[in-house]
């Protein structure tokens, strides 16, 4: 009988991990919720915000609103128009200007805020030339950063499944059969590979769904800005996930029971939450963002965000990706040492230093 | 043949195995006996390469066992373990492939084994849905799916009801008959007595006795005999060179000091009347075990 080669053992482990995970309800629920959430975020504002503004207009000036994207209710005089505004039945009212201040000969009456959409319907806007076309309005920018950070958080936390699966193997002691059959490194490699492939699959589906959602939401201009950033985000997120996967596997290997998992997951969770909050809080601080975009774990989300906001050049992204890839190699090697040093210690929690020394 | 030579292993200051040597011969079921904490499980883990020995070697057919050869072993760990949420047929097939079988062979072996172990109708159930006894049978299937060349089973019969013991025994005997060396540990001496060919007794990390079951019995047998006659057997006590162990009406258990001393007793008994039974008293494994450890 020939021993399954390292590659085929790795692949068999990966295949099992994927099979098990795609059969859990939780996997599909979170995936579907993510996609639905993405669509909701992009499409719903258009659906709800897309109605024509309702405007009251005094008879004598109503003709000025002809052909505009407004729903007009004609009223006999200014008093009636104001009444409708006060009762919130209309967004604004257009009344004759008696002071001569208005070139158009009308005034706009509104409750608390100047009604931008009504005003812009009345004014012929001059053509605009944007010098920095990538500059997106800051609200949209924040939303995109939030979405990037959320995906990182979501997939990073999803790595906890690796810790679960590792500790299940330790707890049930099937690990003894596995270790006597295939190299420990193949076990670790297979686990990481399986989860990375599944995560990549989800990221790619989301990355493909995002443009569709943006188009449905009639956000063509935004799409043009987001698309290149997405292209950076996918590889960064996948590399970042490998790093996190290695950390999760170690977290699982250090304990012997599911109940103790909480005590070792802290570091991995910190490495997921840190970049998430870092990017959220400091997205307006170029200095911090620059640092974050080179530090291995946060680079996965900070660099794509900087590419999106136009703050980083392509060479910066490539450099950061190189650093990330190098740290993937280093951390996975280190993790594999700790993993094999702790996997067979089935009594209680193993200290990191002890696992590193392979002491037993 | 699997040969253990001078295997030693310590955990901290605790020397669990001290220069342990024994053989597991092909085609024979070798019972591995010892009290709790005597080092049985540690020894088995070392054979499987799950633990490294601090001294000594495990060799297979004369040459030291390599990592590449270990997948040809079938192993059932002491603390049972398979994936609780995986369907059993799928799980066994997967383990077969992990041991190097192609998918079709692994599938075929799984089906055959589940049939042998009378688990076919549970093939699609998750492991955790099975009773403990049935989970144990699945564990046996997991150890056998890749047609291992050596079987190392840690307490394969614990937790099985008598019918399940028979089924599992049948499966194991078949493998032994096909020439596979089988090493199994047990603390149920009656079970071991009934089914092993060779016995290795370990006590506090050293081998206390080893050999074929018959050899051990002969070695540890006393010159003890049982005689049942038609009338009262009280006269035996007066014979020279005879020590009474037990006397109860027509039945006497005695030991003789001279070789063939029992022949004189038998001749005497026949002269006095009918003899219903006359046989050497063979020590049970239980007795040998208690004597050596």
What does this entry look like structurally?
In chain A, 68% of the residues lie in helices and 6% in strands. Chain A contains 14 helices and four strands. Chain A has helices at 6-22, 25-49, 78-86, 116-122, 138-158, 160-172, 174-181, 184-216, 220-253, 261-282, 286-292, 296-309, 314-342, 352-357; strands at residues 54-58, 71-75, 92-96, 106-110. The longest helix of chain A has 34 residues, at 220-253. Chain A is elongated, with a radius of gyration of 28 Å. The model of chain A has no long low-confidence stretch (mean pLDDT 82). Chain B is an alpha/beta fold and 293 residues long. Chain B folds into two domains: 2-218, P-loop containing nucleotide triphosphate hydrolases (Rossmann fold), CATH 3.40.50; 221-292, Alpha-Beta Plaits, CATH 3.30.70. Chain B has nine helices and 14 strands. In chain B, strands 6-7-8-3-9-10 form a six-stranded mixed beta sheet, with helices on both faces. A four-stranded antiparallel beta sheet of chain B has the order 2-1-4-5, covered by helices on one side. Chain B has a four-stranded antiparallel beta sheet with strand order 12-13-11-14, with helices on one face. The interface between A and B is medium-sized, with 26 and 33 residues. Chain A: It is found in: Membrane. Chain A: It comes from Umezawaea endophytica.
Query: What is the rounded distance between the termini of chain A?
Result: 32 Å
- Biggest chain-to-chain interface with counts: A-B, 26 and 33 residues
Helix content of chain A: 55-70%
Number of helices of chain A: 14
Give the structural class of chain A.
Answer: mainly alpha
Question: In percent, how helical is the residue content of chain B?
Answer: 25-40%
Distance between the termini of chain B: 26 Å
Oligomer: heterodimer
Total strand count of chain B, please?
14
Order of helices and strands of chain B: EEEHEEEHHHEHEHEEHEEEHEH
How big a fraction of the residues of chain A is strand?
5-15%
What's the count of strands of chain A? Answer: 4
What does the largest sheet of chain A look like? 4 strands, mixed
Strand order of the largest sheet of chain B: 6-7-8-3-9-10
* Overall pLDDT of chain B: 88
């Amino acid at each position: 009988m020939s021993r399954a080669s390292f590659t085929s053992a790795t692949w068999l482990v990966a295949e099992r991990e994927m099979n098990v995970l795609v059969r859990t309800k939780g996997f599909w629920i979170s995936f579907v919720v993510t996609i639905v959430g993405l669509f909701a975020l992009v499409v719903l504002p258009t659906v709800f915000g897309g109605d024509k503004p309702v405007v009251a207009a005094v008879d004598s000036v109503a003709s000025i609103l002809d052909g505009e994207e407004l729903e007009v209710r004609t009223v006999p005089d200014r008093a009636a128009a104001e009444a409708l505004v006060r009762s919130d039945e209309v967004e604004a009212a257009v009344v004759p200007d008696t002071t001569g201040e208005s070139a158009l000969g009308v005034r706009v009456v509104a409750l608390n805020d100047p009604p931008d959409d009504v005003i812009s319907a009345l004014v012929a806007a001059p053509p605009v030339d944007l010098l920095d076309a990538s500059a997106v309005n800051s609200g949209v920018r924040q939303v995109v950063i939030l979405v990037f950070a959320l995906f990182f958080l979501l997939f990073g936390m999803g790595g906890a499944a690796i810790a679960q699966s590792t500790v299940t193997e330790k707890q049930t002691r099937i690990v003894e059969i596995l270790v006597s059959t295939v190299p420990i490194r193949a076990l670790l490699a297979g686990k990481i590979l399986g989860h990375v492939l599944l995560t990549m699959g989800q990221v790619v589906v989301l990355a493909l769904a995002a443009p569709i959602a943006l188009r449905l939401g009639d956000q063509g201009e935004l799409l043009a800005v987001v698309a290149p950033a997405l292209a950076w985000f996918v590889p960064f997120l996948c590399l970042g996930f490998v790093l996190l996967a290695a950390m999760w596997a170690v977290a699982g290997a250090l304990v012997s029971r599911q109940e103790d998992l909480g005590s070792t997951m802290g570091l991995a969770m910190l490495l997921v939450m840190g970049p998430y909050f870092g990017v959220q809080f400091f997205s307006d601080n170029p200095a911090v963002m620059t640092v974050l975009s080179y530090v291995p774990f946060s680079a996965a989300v900070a660099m794509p965000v900087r590419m999106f906001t136009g703050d980083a050049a392509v060479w910066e992204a490539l450099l950061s990706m190189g650093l990330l890839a190098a740290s993937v190699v280093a951390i996975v090697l280190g993790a594999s040492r700790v993993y094999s040093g702790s996997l067979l210690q089935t009594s209680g929690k193993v200290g990191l230093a002890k696992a590193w020394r392979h002491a037993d | 043949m699997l040969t253990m030579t001078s295997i030693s292993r310590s955990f901290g200051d605790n020397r669990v195995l001290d220069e342990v040597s024994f053989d597991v011969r092909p085609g024979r079921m070798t019972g591995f006996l010892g009290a709790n904490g005597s080092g049985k499980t540690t020894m088995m883990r070392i054979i499987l390469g799950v633990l490294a020995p601090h001294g000594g070697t495990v060799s297979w057919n004369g040459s030291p066992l390599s990592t590449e050869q270990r997948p040809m072993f079938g192993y059932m760990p002491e603390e049972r373990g398979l994936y609780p949420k995986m369907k059993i047929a799928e799980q066994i097939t997967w383990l077969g492939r992990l041991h190097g079988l192609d998918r079709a062979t692994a599938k075929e072996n799984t089906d055959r084994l589940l049939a042998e172990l009378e688990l076919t109708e549970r093939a699609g159930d998750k492991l955790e849905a099975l009773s403990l006894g049935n989970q144990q049978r699945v564990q046996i299937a997991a150890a056998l799916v890749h047609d291992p060349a050596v079987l190392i089973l840690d307490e394969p019969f614990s937790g099985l009801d008598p019918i399940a013991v028979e089924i599992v025994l049948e499966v194991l005997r078949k493998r032994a008959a096909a020439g596979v060396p089988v090493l199994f540990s047990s603390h149920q001496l009656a079970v071991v007595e009934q089914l092993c060919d060779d016995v290795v007794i370990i006590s506090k990390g050293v081998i206390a006795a080893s050999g074929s079951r018959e050899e051990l019995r002969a070695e540890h047998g006393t010159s003890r005999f049982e005689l049942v006659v038609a009338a009262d057997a009280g006269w035996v006590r007066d014979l020279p060179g005879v020590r009474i162990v037990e006397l109860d009406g027509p039945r006497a258990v005695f030991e003789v000091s001279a070789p063939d001393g029992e022949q004189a007793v038998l001749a005497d008994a026949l002269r006095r009347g009918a003899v219903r039974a006359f046989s050497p008293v063979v020590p049970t494994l239980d007795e040998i075990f208690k004597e050596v450890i």
